[in-house]
Amino acid sequence: MQNPATPATPESVRVWDPVVRICHWSLVACVMLNEFILEEGDSAHEWAGYIACGAVVIRFAWGFVGSPHARFSDFFPTPQRLRLHFDSLRRGIHPVYIGHNPLGAMMMLALMALVVSLGLTGWLQSTDAYFGEAWLQELHEALAEGLLVAAGLHATAALVMSRVERVNLIRAMITGIKHFR
Ligand code: HEM
Ligand code: HEM
Questions:
Q1: pLDDT tens digits for 25-62?
Q2: How far is the CA of 101 from the centre of ligand 2 (A)?
Q3: Does the C-beta of 28 come closer than 6 Å to ligand 2?
Q4: Is 12 in the pocket of ligand 1 (CB under 6 A)?
Q5: Ligand 2 within 6 A of 31 CB?
Q6: Fewer CB atoms inside 10 Å of the end CB: C or N, the chain?
Q7: Closest ligand 1 atom to 52 CA
Q8: Cβ-count burial of 181 within 10 angstroms (0-12 exposed, 13-18 middle, 19+ buried)?
Q9: Cα(116)–Cα(4) distance, rounded to whole angstroms?
């Protein structure tokens, strides 16, 4: 297999394989559709929710078998990685990562967990046992609000870190290539 970290030019590195990128943007599209466009609880809403969960499941599996920077082993936010990251920040150094930085990775895991929890609480509402349960509707709504806040922070952090690290992280999630300046 080709090593995705092979530099395309000396200043650019192929980081995100197509599975990572397709999962990411499908996830964004489905979440946005369900938060702002589709009628809540409609069958299109259910479909979009399940597709989002499918993207998370595929991405999770890809975290074990995917290209080097897609693997959890590359970026899982272990206490040691977090400590090193904070130590650098405390010394005024902003480390530049080829893959995910450990704080971004924590947010990534939180976003994935929120999407799966929404799928679960949404599905439960369609079962005979939990149909019409007010607490479940409220939990689903609270999770949806939490996801919006988290995604807002995540997108803002991606923009801010792009400036700080002088690497366009959003373009990299589209093209797969990080250009270091
Ligand atoms: C990415 C996944 C999902 C997101 C972001 C999402 C988001 C939302 C939002 C924002 C609402 C409106 C809440 C309110 O203001 O009352 C809602 C309602 C609802 N969703 Fe989802 N949803 C997701 C997945 C699902 C799934 C997979 C199902 C079912 C299979 C589902 C079933 C419902 C139902 C039945 C309601 C209406 C609840 C009520 O009557 O208050 N959702 N969802
Ligand atoms: C519904 C909203 C969103 C969700 C659920 C979401 C979820 C995720 C996840 C799970 C990852 C990890 C990617 C992977 O390794 O598979 C990620 C990374 C990323 N996302 Fe999002 N995302 C959302 C919205 C956005 C938006 C609106 C932007 C653009 C402004 C964005 C930009 C990025 C970037 C640049 C990365 C890579 C960060 C890095 O280089 O470490 N995301 N996102």
A1: 999 999 999 999 999 989 999 999 999 999 999 999 99
A2: 12
A3: yes
A4: no
A5: yes
A6: N
A7: 1
A8: exposed
A9: 28
